[in-house]
Amino acid sequence: MKRALLASLTVVLIAGLAWVRGCSGPRPQLVSARMRGPVAEATVRNAGWGEGVIQLDFRVRSRGGGAPLLRSEKATLRPRETARVEVRVDGARGDEQLDVELDYPPR
Amino acid sequence: MLYRSSVRGLLKRLITEPGADSAEDYARRVHILAATYAVLFCASVAGVVVLAIYGKLFVTLAQRSNVETLTILFLLVLYTYLAAISVRGAFGAARLGFYAWRRRSAREPVAERRRQLGTLDARADGPWAALAKVLDRSDGAPLRFELSDEAGYYGALEIDGARVRHIETASGSADLIAYFVRQIEEVTGSEIPIVVWGQLDDDEGEKFLAQVGFARALQRQLGAPPLWPCVTLTPEHCEEVARRLAKITHALLDEALLPDWEYQAEHKLPVIPEPLGFVSLGRSAKRADPVATMGFATLMVLLTLAVIVLFVLDKPWVPG
Questions:
Q1: Is the pLDDT of residue A72 over 60?
Q2: Residue B7: which pLDDT band, with cuts at 50, 70 and 90?
Q3: Cis upstream peptide for B275 (omega within 30°)
Q4: What is the pLDDT of residue B25?
Q5: Alpha carbon of B68: minimum distance to chain A alpha carbons (Å)
Q6: Is the peptide bond before B319 cis (omega within 30 degrees of 0)?
């Protein structure tokens, strides 16, 4: 009985570890964000071994004040990958303040 | 046959009567129960907090992975329920630790035990059980075992035919009856199964005891030998049982700080699961000790909490 319980527990643990290894999502980290002319650019690194779709929310604020401009973009990150995500913002001059939020899983 | 009896023995030791074998087992059971209540309460509260803080993440995961979002609410209700039923036990475990610490550092541990006994609730009748056999004394004296030591009085075990009752107790536990009956079995060498637990099915117990009472009345009327199976205890047997009961008085005082949640247990293994459900295997126990029920609940809470925390630390892949 004890041996059966131990064996079951071992199987559950191995299955759990395999699940964590094989079914993990990405662990996205924002490396940098900047305006390049009318283009908002964010560099994102996947610090995990999983993959999946992430969501980036760009928030562009004009130096002169006023309501911020919002753009959202989705991208698929592969394991341990660093990627650049760009969004064109029509009418932007390049001197705006840029805030980027990362979300996983995308809402 | 041997395998069946060993499985039955294991189930009895683990689920029905975990502390009945010896005084050491009884004391160990009380400590395990206290730790179980404390862990169950803390883990349940932690589960509620983690789900509340990361609610948005779990709703998103549930929506994205085709898991019913209501599962999160179900877990919240389960954790809240388990926290509610374990809060008294967790408080009792804290008091138990506090009194143990005071006893260790006190000059007169007996005075500390007396003080601990004084803090218990008012005395009343405790749990009872019905035995398959009638217990009698060979000298005709009433069968009553007082539970007391230098610190005070913890009630008494009173036997009336096939009924065993813990009386005048501040907070009795059904496992005391299991321990008592097991010791009588060892001392007399007779098997005495407990067939009904009063806290779980008092109607069935009263019905059974009424039949026993009828058989005893008929025996007296006929002047016949016992009609109902009977175990007779000699004064020497009673002395030995009383000596064994005296060994657990310290554990009884600690146990009185913990609630006694009595449940039945049923284990089902669906071979062909619902909604077809043609074949399922089942096993039931008339009584499951709180160590087994609360212990299993604790395991489940810890397991689900571990998965929840894992999801927070290492978010799973979801379809884009």
A1: yes
A2: low
A3: yes
A4: 92
A5: 16
A6: no
- Mutation to test the A interface, candidates B13, B61, B315, most A Cβ within 10 Å: B315
pLDDT above 60: residue A10: yes
Which has the closest alpha carbon to B318: A43, A13, A77?
A: A77
Beta bridge partners of residue B153, listed in sequence order: B148
CATH architecture of the domain with residue range A25-103: Sandwich (2.60)
Q: Do B317 and A52 touch (CB under 8 A)?
A: yes
CA atoms of B93 and B255, how far apart (whole Å): 9
List helix spans (H) across B189-280. 202-222, 235-246, 249-255
Contact B24, B247 (CB under 8 A): no
Amino acid identity for residue B306 in this structure: A
Q: What one-letter code names the amino acid at B227?
A: L
pLDDT band at B1 (very low <50, low <70, confident <90, very high): very low
B299 by DSSP, 3-state: which?
helix
Is B316's Cβ below 8 Å from some Cβ in A?
A: yes
Terminal-residue alpha carbon distance, chain B: 56
Contact by Cβ (8 Å): B127, B290: no
Reported as a single tens digit per residue, the pLDDT across B82-141 is 999 999 999 999 999 999 999 888 888 888 888 888 888 777 888 999 999 999 999 888
pTM: 0.84
> In chain B, which residue's Cα lies nearest the Cα of A49?
B314
Contact residues, chain B, for A13 at CB < 8 Å? none
Spell out the domain ranges in chain A.
25-103
> Using the beta-carbon criterion (under 8 Å), do B315 and A27 form an inter-chain contact?
yes
Q: Which helix (H) or strand (E) holds B66?
A: none
For the sheet containing A52-61, what is the strand order?
Answer: A69-77, A52-61, A97-103
B60 and chain A: CB distance < 8 Å anywhere? Answer: yes
Q: Residue B2's pLDDT is what?
A: 46
Sort out which chain A residues have CB atoms less than 8 A from B7's CB and list them.
Answer: 1
